[in-house]
Amino acid sequence: MTHALGPERAAALTRAAADAIEAITDSEWPVLLAEALRELEATWQESAEVCTDVAWRARAAQNSALVLLTPEHVTDSSPDPVMWRTYRHLYLSALRYDFRCRTIESLMNKVPVSMLNEDPYSEALYAFSRLGQSRPDGLAVMDRVLVAASAHPKTLHVLLHGVWLGSLLPGRAPMLLALVGLLPEGGLSDPIALFRMASARRSLGHYPEALTAISHALELLPPGDPAVHADVVREHALITTARDLTQHALTSRNITPS
């Protein structure tokens, strides 16, 4: 867990996630997780940390929350706010992993503002949906989230993902670097943060720094996730190609690179 917790609390949340993952091929895993988080009276931060990871595992197991839940689990209210927030986090996270920005935006436009005020993680997913479409109006949403979330790592990663995806956003590369810098240790021990950092450095033409970041990301990646590994390797190839093309262009014009 990335949120600062006592050992007993962290262990309980880890068990809740593990139980859901154990049942990940069954149709009841979202209910099992929601009931466990309700029993723990999980905060929005704790829900975000658990749901983000479990939603990813379910997608990899081809039993996504998108198959088992409905859009109404995002938009409807419930007398049990913790369970409903769990469903919202699971469904929206699954949409995020599938890059379905317009669907997220459409659903979130139906969620009461009062609900978002109590759940900065869901609002971060709303920001992701706009930023991922390169819409500058997503920047104002991102700024609200940054104030409300107090540099919560999982929330920052949602914003990073949106800015990374929004290739036409003004000031995109410096923005990525600024967001990475808000993570613990400036993102230097986080392979996904380093991946985003490398992308930003490549966009700025800082190829040595980009290669250092992406090489470090490859070293830190945990085993067993070939899709993420492939993305990082692809970024490495993009950096080296961009560097080589730049060097070739400079050489062909008889310019010595600094």
Question: What would you say about this model in short?
Answer:
The chain is an all-alpha fold and 258 residues long.
Describe this structure in words.
The chain contains 15 helices and no strands. It is mainly α and 258 residues long. The radius of gyration is 19 Å and the shape is globular.
Largest sheet: none
Number of strands: 0
Question: Gap between N and C termini, in Å?
Answer: 43 Å
Over all CA atoms, what is the radius of gyration? 19 Å
- Residue windows where pLDDT falls under 50 for at least 5 positions: none
| Helicity level | over 70%
* Structural shape: globular
How would you classify the quaternary structure? single chain
Q: DSSP helix count?
A: 15
Helix and strand content put the structural class at: mainly alpha
Note the run of SSEs as H and E: HHHHHHHHHHHHHHH
Residue-averaged pLDDT: 94
Relative strand content:
under 5%
